[in-house]
Each structure stands twice: as structure tokens, then as C-alpha cells.
Design goal:
heterodimer, A: about 130 residues, alpha+beta, 6-stranded antiparallel β-sheet, 3-stranded antiparallel β-sheet, 4 helices, about 20% helix, about 35% strand, B: about 475 residues, alpha/beta, Aspartate Aminotransferase, domain 1, Aspartate Aminotransferase, domain 2, 7-stranded mixed β-sheet, 16 strands, Aminotrans_V_dom (chain B), glycine dehydrogenase (aminomethyl-transferring) (chain B), glycine binding (chain B), oxidoreductase (chain B), pyridoxal phosphate binding (chain B)
Chain lengths: ~130, ~475
């Protein structure tokens, strides 16, 4: 089974993705991660304004199989939270790189992006 | 708003009795609720069934279920096992209901049983001292790790890590974290056991303890236990024994002899007390002489002509009210004394024999062995959960599924010492029948049970938690 690994994203070993657009980083979990978790039934996300450091746990994803923490790939201030997930957690399964996004951060340090995995490196990890 | 409250008063004979007459009631002023209007209501709709309706309701629920008294139940000691019911009779006796506040001198019989049970459990585990206070296995774990922590602190040797194999029970990780330790997860070796070399690499001067279950979750005995103990002790750490699988060793091997310093006993897995399901339970903890000074307060010791409570010198304090959940401990005592040394050794032999007999009869592969009282078969290429649902259609309860994760599509099976050969054959027949069935049949199972397949996703996303939900379906 092959999983979607979009070329325009960066990845964490713990299966989060990050998309950077003009100083803002949008974060979610990967197609592989949602498949491993199975049907997501609950998502807990931080409040806007919260300061995150790369590696911090910022949320919780609960599926029928497991409860998992979600980690911040980069440091920054939370500027947006995908509140749609509170009512429709299945968006994480249906569209992990789109409608299933979790938080938006105002990037504190663009250099941190260099430490993240490229699509190829992440593809190798989940192969 | 006014509430009436029955008052309790001293009638002069130092006996307290409720005064129920209208006159004696005292009116208490209670302020109106400060909750906003949209969160309050004037009336409460509660079900109002007649008594026979209520009795039938619960009987019907019990008939829809499958329990240990319905048929073979290979979830094993970890989840649910059949326990002989004589222990219930013992704990229901009026003498068992002593008030915990009574002075030592008036409950000498109870304290004598406590003291003897401490002694019996100590001898069974090879431990020098045992506390009966912790109220459950997980609470015992927490108590044991707190004792280890107190020991290191007492020696001015604060440590930060607890090492736990990846096959361990989830409570081990939770215990270590609750006690403030960082968890170092130890990958299993290729044979499913602890790899001593990986252990050497993981253990160091920050290691407070290694938590180990032996035999482990795959039912495998840690053959290198003496070397494992040396590695941990040489680094200054303690060896913690998780008593989850002690029922495989009863009367045959003792954690204390293997080098363990602290252990908890799961009396519901090993000594026929019921599974708590929320309690009350008991999780006694055994320690070596060196650690006895840290045991919870109070402890029971023999005194001149009797028994008394005392506080160990460097006690970690209380972990539960009074001296633990006495009726549960009494069941433990009843079971241990009824079986005796020979009976306990026979129980472990039967637990191991039953698991090995059953594994021989089933068509699924068992990748790791030789195993003791439980084995983990692989349902692959079938989905373990589907296979399990289908077993219900064949009249038996399925084993634990999809755990431990080191076996693909795990069917973790523990028939326990209590089952007869006839029951084991019935289980084996169900395993065999399911093994030969097609995916379509498995995916739609169960079909012969009172409730069909539960939609787990819908149940989690939109739970209906009221009695009306059940009502609307009938």
C-alpha cells in the first residue's frame, strides 16, 4: 500500500507534516499516520495565542485504536486552529493534508525547517 | 429552598440512632443554585419501572452478554478469569466485617490473618516483607516504584530513569511516569525476550529500576534473568517484578530467588479474588529486607502476645485508607490456605499445561515459544478482531486481540488453570472452525449473538449514554 506524501511539505519522524506559506506554518498528520491510527474519533487542539517550541506536544488525536500526542514540527505562536475537527474528526482520515489540518503557527525561526525531513526522506522512513 | 435532614443524636447509651420523626428533623437553609437558567431544570425525567420490569431489564442485559459463567473464556488472568466462588462465601461472613477504626486489641484475629497473609505471600514470592495496603495491582506497582524511589533518595542517589521492555503492560509505563521517572523503552530481542546486550546499553547510573514481567506477555520465561539482575544491580538500580504472570510460577520459582528486589502481587490474577472492574481490589507489595523500612504506613507486626500496627522507619506513607481492602485480602487468604503449597504448585502446572495443550490443538501459528501459561497466536492473514467476533458465533469467548503488537494480528490466549480438557477442546474447535472461514463471513460476524457487530466508530463519535437510547431500540 502506498501513501500520499506531497512534494511541497516537510515532515517529522513522528508523522506530522508542515506547509509554510509566507511566514505561516500549517501543521497536520500524514496520510500514513491517519491510516495507522484508524478512524479518528476525537481531536484536541491548543488555544490560539499559545507559544509552541519545536518538539512540544500541542494536541491529542484519539482513534478507536489509540490515543496519540501530536508534536509541533517548528516553534511559533498558534494563530489558527481547525475547529472543524471538533465536530468532524473524520476529516483527519478523509483529507489529512487538506481539510484535516490541525493548527497554524506564526514561524519563530525559519531555520528550523532545515531540520525536518524531505518528502523523500519521509517516504524512506515509512517504506 | 429548604432541605430536611435526619439528625443523628446520642441517646445516652453511647449508641447513635437516627431520629426520623418529623419533629426531630432540622431544616437547613440552602442557597438557590447559582447556575445559569439554561443549565438548570425544574423536573428530572427518571425511568419509573415496576420492580419486575427492572429485574427483567437487568436479566435481559446479562443474557445479551457472554461471561465466565457462560462458557470457555480465554481472556485469561489479565482481563477476566473464572474464580472459584468459595472465597466469596468466606468474605461474606459476618466476622469479616470489622470496622477499620477498631483498636488493635479488639481485632487480634484480623491482624493475625493479615500477618499470616504477609508471611504466605512473602514465602510465595521469595520476599522478606509484604504490605497488604495497596488497593489494586496498578496501585501496587505505584507503591513499589515509590519504595524504589525512597530507597534511592535515602541513599542520596537520586535517579531519573526506569527501564521497561516494549512488551510490558501499559501500567508499567504509566507507573514510572506517575512516579516522576523518564521511561527508557527496551526493544525485545528476536526471541521475544529481553536482550541482555540491549539492556546493558540501556542501563546506567540514571537507572532507578528495571520493571519486568516474568514470564513475559508472550508467556516466555526470561532465561537470562540472573544476568539481567546482575546488569541492573551492578548499575545500582533495583529490579521490579510485575506480578501479572506469577500464576505461571506458583510453587515452582520465586521472583526473590531470581534477584528481584520489589514486586507486586495481582491477587485477582493469581489468588482468585475477583477482577475489580473499578474496585475494590488489592495489590500487595513484597520487598527485600533492605527495603522493608520504606513500606507504607501502617504495617502489621507481631508484638508481645499478639499483633499490632506500626510505622516503618522511613515509610513512604499511606497509599490507601487503613490497611487495605480487607474482604479482598480475606479471599486471597482463603484461596492460599485452601490450596496450600501442593495446590498452588498444581495450579501453576495446570495453567501451563492447559495453555500448551490448547496451542497444540489450534491451526494458527504460535511464533514464540516455549511458552508457559499463555501463548500468542497469529491470526494473519485474517484480521484478529474479525476472527475474534466470529468465535462468538461458535459459542466461546475469543482471546485478547491485537496485543502484544510484536505478533502480527495477535490472538493472546490464556485458558487458565481452571478450565477442563472438555472446555479446552471446545475452544480448540472454535479456533479451528474460524481458521477455515472466508473473509466475508468473518467481516460480518457475529451473526448468532444477541447484539450484532458494534459500530465502534459511531459509538465513539456519537455516544448515546442514556437509558432512553436502549428504550428507543426496543
Amino acid at each position: 500500500m502506498s501513501f500520499d506524501v506531497p512534494e511541497d511539505l516537510r515532515y517529522l519522524e513522528s508523522h506530522e507534516w508542515v506547509r509554510v506559506d509566507d511566514g505561516t506554518a500549517r501543521v497536520g498528520i500524514t496520510d500514513f499516520a491517519q491510516d495507522e491510527l484508524g478512524d479518528v474519533v476525537f481531536v484536541e487542539l491548543p488555544d490560539e495565542g499559545e507559544e509552541l517550541t519545536a518538539g512540544d506536544e500541542f494536541g491529542v488525536v484519539e482513534s478507536i485504536k489509540a490515543v496519540s500526542d501530536v508534536y509541533a514540527p517548528v516553534s511559533g505562536t498558534v494563530t489558527g486552529v481547525n475547529e472543524a475537527l471538533f465536530d468532524d474528526p473524520e476529516l483527519v482520515n478523509e483529507d489529512p493534508f487538506g481539510e484535516g489540518w490541525m493548527v497554524e503557527l506564526e514561524l519563530a525561526d525559519e531555520d528550523e525547517l532545515d531540520a525536518l525531513l524531505s518528502p523523500d526522506a519521509y517516504r524512506d522512513q515509512i517504506a | 429552598m429548604k432541605y430536611d435532614q435526619a439528625r443523628w443524636t446520642d441517646d445516652g447509651d453511647e449508641r447513635y440512632e437516627p431520629l426520623l420523626s418529623e419533629k426531630a428533623n432540622r431544616e437547613v437553609e440552602v442557597e438557590d443554585s447559582p447556575l445559569p437558567d439554561d443549565l438548570t431544570r425544574d423536573s428530572l425525567e427518571l425511568p419509573d419501572p415496576a420492580e419486575p420490569e427492572l429485574a427483567r431489564h437487568y436479566t435481559r442485559l446479562s443474557q445479551m452478554n457472554y461471561g465466565v459463567e457462560n462458557g470457555p473464556f480465554p481472556l485469561g488472568s489479565c482481563t477476566m478469569k473464572y474464580n472459584p466462588s468459595f472465597t466469596e462465601d468466606v468474605s461474606r461472613r459476618a466476622e469479616a466485617a470489622v470496622h477499620p477504626d477498631r483498636p488493635d486489641s479488639t481485632v487480634q484475629g484480623t491482624l493475625a490473618l493479615c500477618h499470616r497473609l504477609q508471611d504466605y505471600l512473602g514465602r510465595i514470592g521469595g520476599m522478606d516483607a509484604v504490605t497488604l495496603q495497596p488497593p489494586a495491582g496498578a496501585a501496587g506497582e505505584f507503591t513499589g516504584i515509590q519504595i524504589a524511589k525512597a530507597y534511592h533518595q535515602h541513599n542520596d542517589d537520586e535517579r531519573s530513569e526506569v527501564v521497561i521492555p516494549d512488551s510490558a503492560h501499559g501500567t508499567n509505563f504509566a507507573t514510572a511516569a506517575m512516579a516522576g521517572y523518564d521511561v527508557v523503552e527496551l526493544p525485545s530481542g528476536d526471541d521475544g525476550r529481553v536482550d541482555p546486550e540491549a539492556l546493558e546499553a540501556a542501563v546506567g547510573e540514571e537507572t532507578a529500576a528495571l520493571m519486568l514481567t516474568n514470564p513475559n506477555t508472550l508467556g516466555l520465561f526470561e532465561r537470562d534473568i540472573e544476568r539481567i539482575a546482575d546488569v541492573v544491580h551492578d548499575a545500582g538500580g533495583l529490579l521490579y517484578y510485575d506480578g501479572a504472570n506469577l500464576n505461571a510460577l506458583l510453587g515452582r520459582a520465586r521472583p526473590g530467588d531470581m534477584g528481584f528486589d520489589v514486586m507486586h502481587y495481582n491477587v485477582h490474577k493469581t489468588f482468585a479474588t475477583p477482577h475489580g472492574g473499578g474496585g475494590p481490589g488489592a495489590g500487595p507489595v513484597g520487598v527485600t529486607d533492605e527495603l522493608a523500612q520504606f513500606l507504607p504506613d501502617p504495617h502489621v507486626q507481631s508484638s508481645k502476645g499478639g499483633y499490632e500496627y506500626y510505622t516503618p522507619d522511613h515509610s513512604i506513607g499511606k497509599v490507601h485508607g487503613f490497611y487495605g481492602n480487607w474482604p479482598v485480602l480475606l479471599k486471597t487468604f482463603a484461596y492460599v490456605t485452601r490450596l496450600g503449597d501442593a495446590g498452588l504448585a498444581d495450579a501453576s502446572a495446570k495453567a501451563v499445561l492447559n495453555a500448551n495443550y490448547l496451542a497444540e490443538q489450534i491451526p494458527y501459528e504460535v511464533p514464540f515459544g516455549p511458552f508457559h501459561h499463555e501463548f500468542v497466536a497469529s491470526a494473519s492473514p485474517q484480521d484478529a478482531a474479525d476472527a475474534a467476533k466470529r468465535m462468538l458465533d461458535h459459542g466461546v469467548h475469543p482471546p485478547t486481540t491485537k496485543w502484544p503488537e510484536i505478533v502480527d494480528e495477535a490472538l493472546m490466549t490464556e485458558p487458565t488453570e481452571a478450565e477442563s480438557k472438555r472446555s479446552l477442546d471446545q475452544l480448540a474447535a472454535a479456533f479451528s472452525a474460524v481458521h477455515d472461514e472466508d473473509d466475508e463471513t468473518l467481516a460480518s460476524a457475529p451473526e448468532r449473538t444477541a447484539a450484532g457487530r458494534i459500530d465502534q466508530v459511531e459509538a465513539a463519535r456519537n455516544p448515546r449514554l442514556s437509558w432512553q437510547a436502549l428504550d428507543s431500540e426496543t
